């Protein structure tokens, strides 16, 4: 058993957990303001999932089609199926153009139009003039936009002297008796030794939880660790029933084919060679919102119009665009399809099927990146010292369904906003609070728990079962009986996990131990997702209930909050009042 006083301590103004675009944008803001910042990442920073983002980042620059932030705001509110908070959405869409230009100046090599301006492609759910013609709003660096952004932000942080703890795993937050967050207990993966990072402010930027599902587009590290940490600290997580399935994953494998492929003029076909999206979304067709296209593909397959020997996928055609366009605008996709399917997409269509992609829900925050919980007066108040941004957070700008290109935007906008808010907090709070040793106990106990010897099931086996269960019981289409069974199944996995054991107890680079911690977080996120999905008796955005096919604004236009203790749910209202413009009231959502 570890002796607490033997655990080394490092002190910083701010601890940022996560080195994706969200964490790095916030860290940059802070380092430039000369705060001392520690960034902890379980992988080398430029391996964070942001690096894999393909299609681009939205901003109403108007370089290709006429555009303005208010149209972008309308599309985002509609895309969210009216569950997004309109103050935060207005803030994000207004900030977009400035922050994209700032990225350009930070070194992001965006693709160019002939006139030298930033290239913008059409993406799903984008319109001109509040629902009119298709807009082209997504600023792209070919099909490797996230790669370009993450590397530029990393370089800027090195220049600003941000302190990096590469390959350190954050186990748990440290909370004191007053409920303030004082930093975290982390594990150096190389040595297996714990370290306390004490900080006046802690920012979670740990990314999404795509590994909850068997077929997914996400990196192996996207295991919802920030959500798990927050749940264990007694704070709820929001809107977890809304999980985005991207329509075009490589069939049977899950890797993403960017929406940019359809933005460049690609389209979907069923086994009869029919462009079936014309039936589901007569106006936007293949560029309807992601939830709409995913359901259409699943329906085609279910009704026997799928392609291939098993009839279990549809085809994405880009070969008619010609080799030059494919090579110039979609080089990453071409390489990936050649590697994994051994076909050339500039000559043959690509087999695709919906794949788990993006976590709309997460840690509840306001538009300043402060983590909020319900206060004594029934309103919301910030958790002292705790912030969250990026895919692990729920601001909520994406509501029930995120638009493509809005997440890279979300991470830079709210990364910057949280950085600024933390700077204000640090001005008023000059000293560290007293260390709370009981707050360290929980993390050290979790560490010790996996040192137990003896026989027990393996982590890998339980993780596989969880991923299969989530896909089977809580996928694109949902229904009461199936969700109920799913909840029992995930609870059973939670029980079995308590008796699981590691075979390898070595300390040095023991990734099995890290995977065990990750599975605990995955199970918590899974329970939150199924519990909230079972409770929500309506269809909205990505949450599609066969038994409740309509959206029900009367009863369900509200955010869910899931607490770990007792698996309890509460709800809070949607913030329908924007900052300066008129609200967009809910109306039927057609594309
Ligand atoms: C294949 C793919 C393509 C995409 N394409 C687009 C696109 O074109 N446009 C768009 O807008 N969005 C896109 N998205 C979504 C977008 O890329 C992500 O939502 C966004 O990049 C998430 O950024 P983040 O900073 O929140 O987290 P991430 O980039 O996921 O980073 C998470 C960080 O947290 C760290 N971390 C996590 N847990 C721990 C722990 N316990 N201890 C220490 N460190 C930890 C990780 O090491 C990592 O550094 C795409 C997503 C995928 C998967």
Question: Could you describe the 3D structure shown?
Answer:
The structure is a single chain. With 591 residues, the chain is an alpha/beta fold. Among the domains are: 249-355, Flavocytochrome C3, Chain A, domain 1; 438-573, Fumarate reductase/succinate dehydrogenase flavoprotein-like, C-terminal domain (Methane Monooxygenase Hydroxylase, Chain G, domain 1, Up-down Bundle). 35% of the residues lie in helices and 20% in strands. It contains 16 helices and 22 strands. The strands form 6 sheets. Strands 1, 2, 6, 7, 8, 9, 16 and 17 form an 8-stranded mixed β-sheet that branches. It has a 4-stranded antiparallel β-sheet with strand order 11-14-13-12, with helices on one face. The chain has a 3-stranded antiparallel β-sheet with strand order 3-5-4, with helices on both faces. A hairpin with a 4-residue loop joins strand 8 and strand 9. The longest helix is centred in the C-terminal third of the chain and has 25 residues, at 511-535. It starts with 8 loop residues before the first strand and ends in an 18-residue tail after the last strand. The protein binds flavin-adenine dinucleotide (FAD). The site of flavin-adenine dinucleotide (FAD) has 45 residues, from helix 1, strand 2, helix 4, strand 7 and helix 11.
